[in-house]
Design brief:
By secondary structure, this protein is α+β, with helices and mostly antiparallel strands. The chain is 17% helix and 49% strand. It contains three helices and ten strands; from the N terminus they run H-H-H-E-E-E-E-E-E-E-E-E-E. It has helices at residues 2-14, 26-41, 46-50; strands spanning 56-64, 73-84, 89-98, 101-112, 117-124, 131-138, 143-150, 160-170, 173-180, 186-195. A ten-stranded antiparallel β-barrel has the order 1-2-3-4-5-6-7-8-9-10. A hairpin with a 5-residue loop joins strand 9 (173-180) and strand 10. The termini are far apart.
Amino acid sequence: MKTDVDERETTTTNRPRPTAAGSTRPDLDQQEMIMKKMEAAGRPGPAHLALNALAGNWKAEVKCWHDPAGAPEITHGTAKAHWKLNGRFLEEEFHGMMMGKPFMGSTLLGYDNTKQTFNSVWVSDTQTSMFTSEGKGDSGNRVIMLEGKVSCAATGRKDVPMKTVLRVIGPDKHTLEMFDGSQGNAKVMEITYTRQ
């Protein structure tokens, strides 16, 4: 008698369960829908195309304000930006001068289709921290405003709110401005890129 109950339980639990639509294969339909959503979210779109204006080889004029009321320090550099991972991320390699010494930095810029935001990560050979930022585009994504927090090794300040504004001026020129939120959004840096 106990054996009959065990067999019934085993048979019942192994039987395919119908879904609300009556299908006995819910996993296949659901997996296919999930895959289609993932593929759509992972496909470069119009926002990625807008970043194409930043691709190429550039001369850069860099202005840095150590004192918002003072004159900026002006240096020059070069940048090369190219697409990575089949048009999903734009990588810029920047060579410039900082405090009289050469440095190299790299930015990865992309657009998250799921969150509907632009995202950026900056690293350089002068620091061990990463500056990550996120934000929205305006004017047909010709202006991109990103916000994040940085740490400053020189002053020891941590989590300083910063705003970055990228502006496409034309096919051969764009700018990047940085503003320090802890100083009333004072401009601390401006880079003017001119196509080589």
